[in-house]
TrEMBL record:
It comes from Novipirellula caenicola. This is UDP-2,4-diacetamido-2,4, 6-trideoxy-beta-L-altropyranose hydrolase. It comes from the Bacteria.
């Protein structure tokens, strides 16, 4: 029997697009399985949001009736409170919380951490909702089909000629211009994904160089092709690291928010990252250049590529879809 499922998430200023990215991956899998899926996005700020028939903009925390008639509500949010989750349950839906760092004591049926850094002990319930199923880890990483259908990078050039630079959809610390300043004379060709068209315009104006190509918002297919077509990526330590790992693209990771600490620490422990770079440390640019120098080694890039592909298998949406339908 097919299920009726609403997916609720957020994007925009101070949030970025990581939540929306992984929820579109889940929505695609559920729809492919024959379920009736609606995706609602609470979009903050004035930045552009790619238009799609697969979602609608809605401040769903103010409109919990979005869960009316639904079998399951899946929530991926840093803004929702415990009261918001209870409001959805009162509408009759079973609720699944997507959680990156044990943010709340969730009053839900299941809690899923779609990150390799998941620790079942650290993620145990602090108080009264121990009945909720708690799962996570690398098998549950949620990647869009445009990523998983892209051929993985097996062969690596002897030299680095093309680098992708992306810090997500919200550069709250103003890191991107400073990063480009330190890379522009070191990289033959850079593709910059600024996250939105307004910011892309500012970056083009400040870094009008022949070896820099700047994009704003890319759709999933464009993003997949851009990442797969580079020799190396310099990225924030969020959802994009998982996409790069699956594709086999070596990367330098820069932490731009505290929610990225678990990802960064995990990839450091596994060897996919060589340095713990924090954009709020004074020497972060020097660390980026040191990592870039280290990754000039073709064998190191090849080894990290193999490691990344072994960690992320791309079947997270399928597993989560099966869990949701079993509730």
């Amino acid at each position: 029997m097919n299920s009726r499922i609403c997916i609720l998430t957020e994007s925009g200023d101070g949030i970025g697009f990581g939540h929306l990215t992984r929820m579109t991956a889940l929505a695609s899998q559920l729809s492919q399985s024959g379920d009736d899926v609606v995706l609602r996005v609470d979009h903050k700020g004035t930045g552009n949001l790619p238009q799609s028939q697969s979602w609608q903009i809605l401040d769903w925390r103010r409109n919990p009736d979005v869960a009316d008639g639904m079998d399951v509500a899946v929530v991926d949010s840093y803004l929702a409170t415990a009261a918001d989750y209870r409001a959805l349950q009162r509408r009759g839906a079973k609720v699944v919380a997507i959680d990156d760092y044990n943010r709340l004591d969730y009053p839900v049926q299941a809690i899923v951490n779609p990150n390799p850094a998941f620790d079942p002990i650290l993620s145990s319930s602090p108080s009264g909702h121990a009945h909720a199923a708690r799962i996570g880890g690398a098998p549950w990483v949620l990647l869009r089909p445009e990523i998983t259908n892209t051929p993985q990078k097996i062969n690596h050039a002897s030299t680095i000629t093309r680098v992708v630079v992306t810090l997500g959809g919200s550069d709250v610390h103003g890191v991107l211009p400073k990063l480009l300043d330190c890379l522009i004379d070191r990289v033959p060709s850079m593709v910059v994904i600024a996250g939105n068209d307004d910011y892309a315009g500012k970056i083009r104006a400040s870094h009008d160089c022949g070896n820099v190509q700047v994009h704003g918002m890319l759709n999933a297919a464009e993003m997949a092709a851009t990442l797969a077509g580079c020799d190396l990526a310099v990225s924030a330590c969020g959802q994009t690291l998982h996409e790069l790992a699956f594709l086999g693209v070596p990367f330098v990771g820069i932490r731009v928010g505290d929610d990225q600490i678990p990802n960064q620490d995990h990839y450091l422990q596994t060897g996919l990252l060589g340095s713990k770079i924090d954009c709020q440390q004074d020497d972060w640019r020097e660390q980026v250049l040191q990592e870039l120098d280290a990754l000039s080694s073709q064998s190191l890039r090849h080894g990290r590529s193999e490691l990344g592909r072994s960690i992320i298998d791309g079947r997270g949406p399928e597993r989560l879809s099966q869990l949701i339908r079993s509730l």
